[in-house]
Amino acid sequence: MKAFAHRGGALHPDLVGLENTLRAFRHAHDLGFRHLETDVHLTADGVLVAFHDTVLDRVTDGRGRVRDATLADLRAARVGGREQVPTLVELLEALPDAVLNVDLKDDRAVAPLARLLAVRGDEHRVVVGSFSARRLRRFRRIGGGRVATSAHAAEVAAYRLLPSARLARLVTRGGPVALQVPERVGPLRVVTPGLVRRAHAAGVEVHVWVVDDEPGMRRLAALGVDGIMTDRTDILADVMRDLGQWPDR
User: Is the pTM of the predicted complex or chain greater than 0.90?
Assistant: First the structure.
């Protein structure tokens, strides 16, 4: 089972308020995490940055929209009052043995991300996802299928509702390598034994987010999911160590 440090382990007791920073990602890496989840936006001057929100206000001492800020503006802001907002290149270079799970948060970031990965030769060490089906389809088209992608909502629905893996794979055209989903959406249970079974029969992994409690982690591991994304990297590392599945390499 793969262990994903969500935003670098945003709720680890040593990292609260420092999500999506190089300090957070290095901390997760030191714990043994080799799968790191982050989000990307494009600055006003065309730089891809690892940042979740559309605005700086919640996690930094800066103000305003990320898309309106230059890289220099972001350099002046501090996450948690201490850490810089990292560029995606800085993250890729800081941890060269890590696999990044990148959530496209910005329409303008689609083409620059595809170009950056191609130029750097990093297409093999990134999985790209998005809540926007249109954004994800565009990335797949520009990237020519060379970068692994997770499923958008309609593709997840195919694996959740259709009666067979063959039909689900046909409907999704073999696009996603993974279903990255919450365990539940309101009253609807998304991650079921049937969904896991159909995904595996089609050669597709199931990654569940965001799971921060030990009972939930153990329940999903017993169900046979292929990955868990967590903000509590300390808890997941302990659970996986107990299950004999650590370090995650």
Answer: yes
